[in-house]
Amino acid sequence: MNGKTKNELLFRKAFIPWYDTEVFIFLTLVFALAVFLFSLYGIASSLETPRYNAYLWIPLLLGILSLSLIVSLFVRSIRRDVNGSS
What is the residue extent of each domain of the chain? Predict the structure, then answer.
């Protein structure tokens, strides 16, 4: 064990993956919010133009997926702040 005791190995700093950093979470939230706004615009134009009514499911699906990503990342960032592991 290279002269290290078991206690020294247990209390080392946890490794945070690159996709779980605050910067990456913030950038993903911004991008997901832009996609959500784009999907709202697509839903509005689909409802406004009768020939596009059949394609309403595409922006609706895009909005649902981006909204679920926004909620998931927002909850994850709140949990990280509450636990104090930033």
Answer: 33-80
What does the block give as tokens for 33? 């919010």
pTM score = 0.74
Distance from C-alpha of 31 to C-alpha of 37, rounded to nearest angstrom: 10
Residue ranges of alpha helices (H) inside the chain are: 6-10, 22-48, 57-83
Structure tokens at 36: 């959500």
In contact, 55 and 14? CB cutoff 8 Å: no
Sequence letter at residue 65:
L
Which tokens sit at 47?
């409802």
Q: Is the pLDDT reported for residue 86 higher than 60?
A: no
